[in-house]
Amino acid sequence: MQHRHQVYDIHRREGVDKPLNASLNEGCRATRDTTFVKSRSAKLQHGLTLLEMLVAVAVLAIVVTSVAPNIQSLLIKNKITADLNSLSAVAQRARFTAVDEQTDVLMCPTDDYSACSNDWKLAKMVFIDSNGNGARDNTEDLIVTSDPLNSSNTVYGLSGSLIFDEQGGVSRAATIKICPKTNDANYASALLLSLYGRISVAVDSDGNGVKEDLQGNDLSCS
Predict the structure, then answer these.
(1) Rounded Cα distance, 51 and 66, in Å
(2) CATH number of the domain residue 99 falls in
(3) Is residue 145 within 8 Å of 94, Cβ to Cβ?
(4) What is each CA distance from 29 to 8, 25, 33, 81, 204, in whole angstroms?
(5) In the chain, fewer beta carbons within 10 Å around the N or the C end?
């Protein structure tokens, strides 16, 4: 009798457990399905909406509009500074050579590194003018040369050759002005050569936004 009751209890528990297990299995499958759908949905929603894209484009346009003028101004200044540094290096080398060699050294623009020209936009060359004829002969070696000015720049204030003597002086004082092609004096700079051979770069001493020449006058692009 006791044995039959035990068997009945076992069957009754199994009868209860089976629906419970089935319910749990269904719940697990539903949870997995929901998790899979959410995960798949999250993977699919990784792009930008049209509104987000329009906002991004608008912000980018504002940034470009505000930054572009500053970049343009920086590029203009850098081109002028590069040409000025090149010109200064050649002039310094010419003066030092004249003092070291105790002889006249000629610096002039040229388009073939042989004959001198009047256009300072061209390349520059330096040589010892042994016979004093103002031209470079085949026996006169080049001391240093430079490239032509950047095509975006132009030059004012000097024509022809400069001669540095054994004392370091120069044949004539000069303000060699370098300007952008727009001739905007706010960007203008210059190499200043005094009669004593002092070589310097123009500065804006009065803070008005325009640099000055040897006489202290504002530079002009003409």
Answers:
(1) 23
(2) 3.55.40
(3) no
(4) 32, 6, 6, 73, 80
(5) N
Q: Give SS3 for 119.
A: coil
Q: What distance in Å separates the CA atoms of residue 36 and residue 28, rounded to the nearest whole number?
A: 12
Q: Residue 10 and residue 15: Cα distance in Å, rounded?
A: 9
Indicate the average pLDDT of the chain: 83
pTM to 2 decimal places: 0.69
Instruction: Give 132's pLDDT tier (boundaries 50, 70, 90).
Output: confident
Answer for the pair 106, 52: CB distance below 8 angstroms, yes or no: no
Which strands make up the sheet holding 199-201, listed edge to edge? 153-156, 174-180, 189-193, 199-201
The predicted pLDDT at position 25 comes to 54
Residue 140 covered by a domain:
yes
Q: Is residue 28 part of a domain?
A: no
